[in-house]
Design a protein that fits this description.
Elements: E1 4-7, E2 10-13, E3 16-17, H1 18-25, E4 29-33, H2 34-47, E5 53-58, H3 65-73, E6 77-80, H4 83-91, E7 99-101, H5 108-117, E8 121-124, H6 127-140, E9 144-151, E10 173-174, H7 178-186, E11 191-197, H8 207-226, E12 233-235, H9 252-263, E13 270-273, H10 277-280, E14 284-295, E15 300-304, H11 313-317, E16 323-325, E17 335-340, E18 349-356, E19 363-366, E20 387-392, E21 395-400, H12 405-409
Parallel strand pairs: 4-20, 5-6, 5-13, 6-7, 7-8, 8-9, 9-10, 9-11, 11-12, 12-13, 15-17
Antiparallel strand pairs: 1-2, 2-3, 4-14, 14-15, 14-19, 16-19, 17-18, 20-21
Helix pairs in contact: 2-9, 5-6, 8-9
This protein binds pyridoxal-5'-phosphate (PLP).
Pyridoxal-5'-phosphate is lined by residues 58, 60-61, 79, 102, 199, 202, 237-240, 274-278, 371.
């Protein structure tokens, strides 16, 4: 459930009409709902209440400081994949002790910074990384807390670009080598082996793959315990699907029961979950304006002022995301439109065959754009990045200014 609703034919974010947002801040513009964000985060907190747990929001889904701040105030931990994301969460005052650092190619300077601030855990994705991290920790006279990211080889039945737990995926350490990798880590003096991690993909709507992965982790934990390697943290990753169209995602409480049934409620392990999309996806829309209506041979195009530079999911994954008129029209007939951006690429579309009653100048809102929207945006075609606005009941706040043109070439230099 979210707080973007029609009222007398006009789309609102909480108590604020999107027409008002567009007239205050212009388009294209991302609009987030604080109440939705909080509701989704709370659902995970409450579902896991019975177990020792930490909900680490995956920053890459949406790293806006206002989003991070709201979640931080609610007690969230954070999953970061780069030094940039680490600095973002520190900038809102997050405790380093609640940060987990994942990523297949961490650099030494990133490891050093994370050790310096004292993060909760490194999720290590290769044997090579163990050696590197051990050396960095040694040079600083510290011990680095680690979990190994296990690749459990399960097929989560999602788009191949967002499946990460198959055996030939670049992520994690293959399950077959996990025990050996733990023994190796255990022998290193500057590593503290604390947990096990996995993350099998994104936008998953079936619990089966999670159950399979959890059972594999449980088995590995037992084998390790027999060797005297006892872990205290199990990080089961994120990837929880949301409804874009007609998906029927499971609820956080169903997932929590699954964890409890596999790992027990005995608090032997601290359970960490890393939802990104499930928290912020349906808490945001992309607001845009129709610039041009035109007809090709057979297709009708609505060219809007946002495109793959603002929202790349349709172009990158063929993702379907709903497109709604901000104000419903009765004076023209609905027809099928290809909703496209102004970018010079044929993949630059936001929606195909959408039934809409449109005139030039109309406002549209693309739903479920809070996750992997702004965070994957670019300046392609020299387009300044969109503004971001947070609605909180009757108030609205500019949480990121629209980029200005001079900012685009700030830091560039001509030859003398
Ligand atoms: C991307 C990612 C997540 C979050 O994925 P969602 O699908 O947004 O929930 C969590 N953990 C790791 C390690 C990731 O790479």
């Amino acid at each position: 459930m979210d707080h973007f609703l029609q009222r007398e034919g006009v789309l609102f974010a909480e108590e604020v009409s999107l027409e008002e947002v567009a007239s205050c801040y212009g388009t294209p513009c991302y609009v987030y709902s604080r109440a939705t964000l909080e509701r989704h985060f709370r659902a995970f907190q409450e579902a896991l209440q019975g177990q020792k747990h930490l909900v680490c929001y995956a920053v890459k889904a949406n790293g806006n400081l206002a989003v991070l701040d709201i979640l931080c105030r609610m007690g969230a931990g954070f999953d970061v994949v780069s030094i940039g994301e680490l600095e973002r969460v520190l900038a809102v005052g997050a405790e380093a002790g609640k940060v987990i650092f994942t990523g297949t190619g961490k650099r030494e300077d990133e490891m050093r910074r994370a050790l310096e601030v004292g993060i909760r855990c490194f999720s290590v994705e290769s044997e090579s990384e163990l050696y590197k991290l051990n050396a960095v920790a040694k040079s600083m006279g510290k011990r680095a807390p680690i979990a190994l990211r296990v690749n459990p080889d399960v097929n989560p039945q999602t788009h191949p670009y967002i499946a990460t737990g198959l055996k030939d995926s670049k992520f994690g350490i293959p399950a077959t080598r996990t025990l050996e990798a733990y023994r190796l880590a255990k022998r290193m003096d500057f590593l503290e082996v604390v947990g096990m991690d996995c993350h099998i993909g994104s936008q998953l709507t079936e619990l089966d793959a999670y159950r399979e992965a959890a059972l594999r982790l449980k088995h590995l934990l037992e084998v390790l315990a027999q060797e005297g390697i006892c872990l205290r943290m199990v990080d089961v990753g994120g990837g929880f699907g949301i409804r874009y169209k007609d998906e029927e995602p499971f609820l956080p409480c169903a997932y929590a029961s699954l964890l409890e049934s596999v790992f027990g409620a005995s608090n032997d392990y601290e359970m960490v979950v890393e939802p990104g999309r499930a928290i912020v996806g349906n808490a945001g829309v992309l607001l845009m304006r129709v610039e041009v209506l035109k007809q090709a041979d057979t297709l009708h195009f609505a060219v809007v002022d946002a495109g793959m530079s603002e929202l790349i999911r349709p172009a990158l994954y063929g993702a379907w995301m709903d497109i709604l008129p901000v104000r419903k029209r009765e004076d023209v007939e609905a027809r099928l439109w290809e909703v496209v951006g102004p970018i010079c690429e044929s993949t630059d579309f936001l929606g195909k065959e959408r039934s809409l009653a449109l005139k030039e100048g109309d406002l549209l809102a693309q739903r479920s754009a809070g996750a992997y929207g702004f965070s994957m945006s670019s300046n392609y075609n020299a387009r300044p990045r969109a503004a971001e606005v947070m609605v909180d009941k009757t108030q609205h706040f500019l949480v990121r200014e629209r980029e200005t043109l001079p900012k685009l070439w700030e830091g560039e230099h001509r030859l003398p």
